[in-house]
Structures are given as structure tokens and as C-alpha cells.
Design goal:
Layout (H helix, E strand, L loop, with lengths): L1 E6 L2 E6 L9 E10 L2 H7 L16 E9 L11 E4 L28 E5 L3 E3 L6 H4 L2 H11 L8 E5 L3 H12 L3 E6 L2 H10 L3 E4 L6 H8 L7 E4 L6 H8 L5 E4 L12 H7 L2 E4 L5 H13 L6 E6 L3 H9 L6 E5 L2
Parallel strand pairs: 8-9, 8-11, 9-10, 11-12, 12-13, 14-15
Antiparallel strand pairs: 1-2, 3-4, 3-6, 3-15, 4-5, 5-7
Length: about 325
């Protein structure tokens, strides 16, 4: 089978033996996989890792069951499946230790992958392999970030990355009002098309947190999907107002920014939750939701397997709006 492994910061395609599923494992014929920001960080050596530096990259995939090992009852050959982002987080509280795809164990940029049957979920027929491959990281993160959002509440999303676009779409399905930020008129138009009620250009309005307050009559956002980290958190606190907003702390795309003043944090009364994507149960809950409230994942571009390197470069350009997908013939 063909796989990709990193060598000196570049992806190199190799031929390796097709794995045989062991007891409890499922052999997946990968049909599509997608990129996330973490995958660039891992390739660049800028993300915490617990495995070797030559692991197969990518955390998200959809495919077809090619074979099952002894004792597997959840799936059979021919079933369409999607991986859960965390292979060993089934439900409940976040485990003390997790082994991530691409940084702790081999990921999914391969023609075949053998994993424990417990690490997979069924892919509904309503979703293509390409659409399914966009879900495990970004969509599940958005889903868990929005837990408990009520109709009429204000959700703030930042930028046009995968998590933010899914959060916008899911928040609208929950009946929320969405305020979104971006950096260009073209991206603002796409956000509006997806349902954003208010779009703020953060380059033209550096103090966009106050703009969020103005757009909400001084109340601020009820839920903030905070993907920027140090680069955006101070303004997110401003946008939270003083009415005990919920800030879902997702990522750190903005690697540097002003320090957070303790009194600003205290006055906001905000509840801050770390979001580590979600469990297999969260993934299954999202798929049940999508079965009755379907949405169209925003896909920027699709590359064939042999052009996986070009897919990484497309994603690295930061000009994309939507997911970058690699298909496997």
C-alpha cells in the first residue's frame, strides 16, 4: 500500500505492507482524509508529540471496512466508517492520557489503516467520504464548543478556519445569532452566505471586542468559540461583556498577543472551558444531529492522493476558506 511519512519537513510517499487486522481491529480502506491546523504544526515540528518524527500524518479520515479481526462485532466488511479523533476516548471525562493520530501514532494519510473497532463510528449514507473526512476534528470541536447553546443566544466565531465555519453553521441550526470576525470582504461575503448575522473585519477594527458589544446592544456574546488563543483572547474577553459568557477555549492560531488583565477576566465573569475535540460519543451525537439537520461542509479544495504535498501547501498558504481534502482512489 502507499503511505506518506515526513522526512526533513517534507512528505515522502512510500510503499509499505498492507496491515492485517489483529483481534479487535478493523482494516479500513481509506477513501478520503482532510487537513487541520495541527497537521501543519506536527509536520513543522511545532506541536507536542509523543511518538517518532516519522509517523503517518493526518487525524481525520473516512473509508470502507476492508476486513475485521477476530472478536469485532460493531462492523463488517463493506461498512462505511469514520474515525473518532481520539482513538481511546469513548465517552465521559477526558482521559488522563491520549495518543493522537500523527503525533503519537500513525495517522490516516495512507491507503489502509488498521485500528481498534472501538475507534470508529458508522458514516451515514447521507454523507460522502469527502464530506465525512472533514468531521472528526473540526466539526466535533465545533459541536462540543456549542454544547448547551439556546435559541436566541449570541455565538461569536473567529476567522474562517474549519472549526469556526462548522461552529457558524451549527450555531445557526441551534437558532442562535452569530457574530463572526474575518479579515477580508470576500471571506465576509462567504460568512454572510453561511448565515452570519454580523461580520466584523478585525483588520479594519482591531478592537473588535467592542464592536461585538456594539452589535449586541452592549450585552456581548453568550458563547465564544475561541480559536486564536494568545492572539485573540483579550478581545474575546471584551466581547464577552459582563454577563457570564461561556468561552470555549479551542486553539492557539494566534501565537502571540497582549497579556490578559486579571481584572478584565474577573469582571467578565466568563466560564472558560478547554475543548479537546471530543469523545467517540460526541462524534456519534453530532452524526445523529446531522442525520436530521444536514449541513454542507465547506470544502476549499480536493487533491488526489499523489498530490498530498500540494494539499499541504494549499493549506499552508492560509488563503483557503474551508477544508482541504485528499482523496484516495
Amino acid at each position: 500500500m502507499r503511505v506518506y511519512r515526513p522526512e526533513a519537513g517534507s512528505l515522502v510517499q512510500r510503499e509499505e505492507p498492507t496491515p492485517e487486522p489483529r483481534r479487535g481491529e478493523v482494516l479500513v480502506r481509506v477513501r478520503a482524509t482532510s487537513l487541520n491546523y495541527r497537521d501543519l504544526l506536527i509536520l513543522d515540528g511545532d506541536h507536542f508529540a509523543t511518538g517518532s518524527g516519522s509517523l503517518i500524518p493526518l487525524s481525520d479520515a473516512a473509508g470502507e471496512v476492508a476486513a475485521v479481526g477476530e472478536g469485532v462485532t460493531r462492523f463488517k466488511a463493506g461498512d462505511r466508517v469514520l474515525n473518532a479523533f481520539h482513538s481511546d476516548w469513548i465517552a465521559g471525562r477526558l482521559p488522563g492520557t491520549l495518543t493522537g493520530y500523527g503525533n503519537g501514532q500513525d495517522g490516516w494519510l495512507a491507503e489502509y489503516r488498521a485500528v481498534g473497532g472501538h475507534a470508529l463510528v458508522a458514516l451515514p449514507d447521507s454523507l460522502s467520504y469527502e464530506q465525512g473526512a472533514t468531521l472528526p476534528c473540526a466539526a466535533v470541536t465545533a459541536w462540543t464548543s456549542l454544547g448547551g447553546v439556546k435559541p436566541g443566544e449570541v455565538v461569536l466565531t473567529l476567522g474562517t478556519g474549519g472549526v469556526s465555519l462548522f461552529a457558524l453553521q451549527l450555531a445557526k441550526q441551534h437558532g442562535a445569532r452569530v457574530v463572526a470576525t474575518t479579515s477580508s470582504a470576500a471571506k465576509a461575503a462567504k460568512l454572510t452566505e453561511l448565515g452570519a448575522d454580523v461580520v466584523i473585519d478585525y483588520t479594519a477594527t482591531p478592537e473588535w471586542g467592542k464592536a461585538v458589544l456594539d452589535a449586541t446592544g452592549g450585552r456581548g456574546a453568550d458563547r465564544i468559540v475561541e480559536v486564536g488563543g494568545p492572539g485573540t483572547f483579550a478581545q474575546s474577553l471584551v466581547a464577552a461583556g459582563t454577563h457570564h459568557a461561556d468561552i470555549a477555549l479551542v486553539g492557539f492560531v494566534g501565537r502571540s498577543g497582549p497579556p490578559v488583565d486579571f481584572m478584565d477576566l474577573f469582571r467578565s465573569g466568563a466560564t472558560i472551558r478547554k475543548i479537546w475535540v471530543g469523545s467517540r460519543e460526541d462524534t456519534e451525537d453530532l452524526l445523529r444531529w446531522l442525520a436530521v439537520r444536514p449541513l454542507e461542509p465547506v470544502v476549499d479544495s480536493v487533491f488526489p492522493f499523489d498530490d498530498a504535498g500540494a494539499a499541504f501547501e494549499r493549506f499552508r498558504s492560509r488563503r483557503n476558506l474551508g477544508k482541504v481534502v485528499v482523496t484516495v482512489p
